[in-house]
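Hi L., both proteins are below.
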Amino acid sequence: MFTAYPYPSLVSNAPVLQRRLGTADAAFIGLGSMIGAGVFAAFTPAAQSAGAGLLVGLVVAALVAACNALASAQLAAAYPTSGGTYVYGREQLGPWWGFLAGWSFVIGKTASCAAMALTFASYAAPGGWERPVAAVAVVALAAVNYRGVTRTARLARVIVVLVLIALAIAVAATASGGLHRLGELDASGLVAHGPYGILQAAGLLFFAFAGYARVATMGEEVRDPARTIPRAIVIALSITIVVYGVVAVSLLGALGADGLAASSAPLRDAAAAWSWTAPVVTIGAALASLGALLALIAGIGRTTLAMAREGDLPRWLSAVHPRFHVPHRAEVVLALVVVALVLTVDLRGAIGFSSFGVLLYYFVANLSAFTQKQASRMFPRAIFVIGGGACLLLVATLPPLAILGGIAVLAGGVAYRLVVRARLVR
């Protein structure tokens, strides 16, 4: 029996979002976030870190993601509102913990938006036009989100189905060419790069799993959230784990660890046995990037809404459109920031930075779930101990530049909040 939480906001008379999403809608949004550009891009840096040991890293990343998903599901059932772990951290641990989670999510995922847009353009745009095409993609998907969450869910369904078809064709082509390198995946090859390499690969691959947060951040727009959100998260994550496992084994079987580490387009290279699959993989990668970008815009907008309601971001960002019932100011500002980034900065290498922010976000989620009272608890506390500890361990093994950049961003956020709070005290 869960406690109904008196949200939508701690601010009286705040505008609210509408509950329009069912389990299938929420699951597709989660799938669109996870089966995104990560499946086309994350395996190469993982192979560079761990070689064939990326399979072990994938298992570790999946286990950590499962712990985090269960924490998110338990918390979302108790706090069915926008904002995800920002709200959970505030209510279970205190305002600073919530701010740490929200700031990590918004900044890290804003960079991910730019990375997804540039990834899309690298596949879809002619040479020299990547940045303008990326900017147009951001504006177009922001417009879809602006028109209402049901349109976001419908487009997510279409994109997910098309991407899964493209992945199925690529895997079939890869298998038809022969998975001759599978024999090289012996025990010594799996651990050749040592525990550090495996954990670094897990941290990088975690980037591809993190989309289930989008379901929790949209808790204010889901029907019967105590039942719908846990189901949607479990469904989306389970499907994603199976898909990633099949793709990883296929890539290693066709290219080997060294070939995978050297490939800039591993799925396209592995599927070369069927020459006509190259454009299919290209289209699939472009659509996957758009799907991830679509879900990111929706999730960041809702977290920004929650932070603005509490004054941790400017309060005028908490406005909800009277007709479309979306946080329209937050989404417009996000779109402008992302457009500025894709026109000026190369963020296609932002996987490590994004993983830093997301892992901290889920550390707060696990800690929040651990502190929930028995009446609100769905799963054993040991799960959240494992999940929180694993998040910190994976953060520590990320590339040094990602760690330093993440620390700098967190310091900037803390300074901002201290200044705002000091002004309120005066």
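That was the first. Here is the second:
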Amino acid sequence: MNDIDVSDFYGLDSTLDDEDRLLRDTIRRFVDDKWMPVVAEHFEAGTFPLDLVPQIAQLGLLGIHLDGYGCAGASATAYGIACRELERGDSGLRSFVSVQGSLCMFPIWKFGSEEQKHDWLPRMAAGEAIGCFGLTEPDHGSDPSSMQTRAVRDGDDWVLNGSKRWITNAGIADLAIVWAQTDEGIRGFIVPTDTAGFEARKIDKKLSLRASVTGEFYLDDVRIPERFRLPEATGMRGPLSCLSEARYGIVWGAVGAGVACIEAAVEYAQGRPQFGRPIAGFQITQAKLADMVTDITNASLHAYRLAQLKEAGTIRPAHVSMAKRHNVRAAIDTARTARTILGANGISLEYPVIRHMVNLESVLTYEGTEEIHTLVLGETATGIAAYR
């Protein structure tokens, strides 16, 4: 039985082609060699290592799943593998890549003009311009259609007023994708963060996703030209499609967080003696590990099947909701169980488990709460929207 890798129990990675294996191994080396030596320090300080952004860009990870304009044009499976390996390092690392590629580059690529694509996407793929995604507001999280941020036409310009909160990269971003109410419905805008009236503030005192910059921004009569509006983004279809792209990455990323916790727990249990033998030899510890491995193996199956649906063009939002809901719950339960195996050492940043455990509390909530995804599945089963 020792020839079974508990981090890939069914050997799903054996189905990867040579190019995807190379991508996996390259990102894994980057995470091990560049990210892991500094993550505890940045987690404790509440900072993100911006000096690593050029290397992240050189790996082709920014907008990895988009075609053209300097982007890698990778498959859905490759994008998923990348997210898994990044979140094996930390949710903050995967979040940075997801926000840049799926929430900021994707809406420009999908809904933008050719001028916008040529202007922004190559720079964003190279890490020369960082984006943030402005949808969530202080009073409107799970119901973004009720947003209060408003954009009003004034001649050939738009004037934006409002605020957005819990925004990854706010404070370090060069542009914000802002969703706002207009007389024609919800529309999307590219707002350079150096525009007069735009102000970003960092949210401090977080106890989760600390190796990630989170903030809020305010729009006070921010004036931008019509050419900064995303011409093809109309209604909630725009931001929700971006969220589906990012949630797909979370499905895979949660597997990476779970794998990191399993690996840490197994290594610790094998080397921690109590009552004259390693705790790995006790039945309760083995029962915990059996549950953890089963949960993350199930999560991996969700991720791989979702990749197949995405590549076939048959993926639906409810598919993503099921996988996001299942995988994040599996990962957070795995992290909590791993923490108990490590005992008091489980709360130390010397080990990765507590970082993943508290990070996953945020992942459980952002990009659609567990409760909302539950209701999406309920609506799919019954045809009745219980949240309206």
